[in-house]
Design a protein that fits this description.
By secondary structure, the chain is an all-alpha fold. The chain has helices at 5-11, 15-30, 38-49. 60% of the residues lie in helices and 0% in strands.
């Protein structure tokens, strides 16, 4: 995989919404350092509202 962190988020199972959900699971287990940024959460919500038609991450 190439393209850095944003491409990783887009390629994660479930896209940005799946990535932010996994971050929440990790934060519960390992602490707040795993919480996604507010911008990433916002983009994931926008992508989910659009029915997954867009990546959600610029």
């Amino acid at each position: 995989m190439t393209g850095g962190a944003l491409q990783y988020v887009n390629g994660h199972p479930g896209g940005p919404a799946g990535f932010t959900a996994r971050c929440g699971e990790l934060a519960e287990r390992y602490g707040d350092r795993f919480l996604p940024s507010p911008l990433l959460r916002e983009r994931a919500e926008e992508a989910a509202a659009a029915g997954g038609r867009e990546s959600g991450v610029p």
